[in-house]
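Q: I'm writing a short explainer about Pre-mRNA-processing factor 17 for a general audience and would like to include a description of its predicted shape. Could you first generate the structure from this sequence?
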Amino acid sequence: MRNLWPSQQRRRKRNWMRSQPRGRRGERFRMRLQERRKPSFISKTCMTTRADLTSISHRMWVSVFGLQMLQISVICPRNSFMFGLDTLRGSVESGYFPSLVTCCSPAPWTVKSSCGRFTKKEDAYGHLSATAKQVRDICFNNTGSQFLSAAYDRYLKLWDSETGKCISHFTNRKVPYCVKFNPDEDKQNLFVAGMSDKKIVQWDIRTGEVVQEYDRHLGAVNTITFVDENRRFVSTSDDKSLRVWEWDIPVDFKYIAEPSMHSMPAVTLSPNSKWLACQSMDNQILIFGAQNRFRLNKKKIFKGHMVAGYACQVDFSPDMSYVVSGDADGKLNIWDWKTTKLYHRIKAHDKVCISALWHPHETSKVITCGWDGQIKLWD
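A: Of course. Here's the predicted structure. Afterward I'll give you a sentence or two in plain language.
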């Protein structure tokens, strides 16, 4: 065989490669490209025991919705939130269905002031310019009259739900990842926030000062959940651990960390307050006891969905019959609580279905939100 110039060799090799069928190497390369194109931010979601809802999107606006008769399948029109929604959050005391929505668009969908039914132009009765950066989390007080927002501008702000005015703000110059009021009626002036500097910081609203710090985590704190009649709270972190704290005692009461554990950026307490559902980043929902021992229930592990890299929120049905969660493919997954088998799967959104909440009163309805900028009601 005669010798070829290097350019001829490359040309011949290139032509031969093009003539070959696409193999596993090409498939892996295409899958890797698809993963790179996905958004990189993480979100979470939860709901209280009343029929109240809050949703968070990617950047800087908060809009307050008043929905009375939920007889529609799509609550928010397509592209009303241009960069998608991150979180649904619920208030406590209300006869209608309020929703707080933070929108990542610098100029969100223009709305008029309205406190009544859902309409195309008057679906929101207030929108708040919350921060210059993304809102990470929101938490209502027990009456629903005020709520706290945690944002990437490193501020925690206290808002009036009716007027939309900022009452006060708090900061320790670190990014707050989650925020929770103390649910006890006599401690509504106190709240805790999980920070990017591995600490859980406790503030007093009346004085505006830090009154306690819980400093035992080795990574940023992602979630805080009150358990055991609000005497304790559970926190999860990027250090792949779960810690249980006694209120106002800065030493962890229980520390759970196994080599096989992954980060759990979304945690939900069951309606009977006996179980914690944790969305694990190895595509599983893990169930921990929420009373004395806080052990992993190995008989209750829910699989079959893909959530690695996304903090898709978990929720329980009010009668504890089902567990629901979104996934990275935009699907709504429903499992049977007793058998842990996947009961039903619905294509809910075009992009990531980041949040799924069960309606606490109308138990046949589920609310979802996704990165396609839509909030949907399913029956």
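A: For your explainer, you could say: Confidence is low (pLDDT under 50) at residues 35-52, 66-82, 92-127.
Q: Perfect, that's easy to follow.
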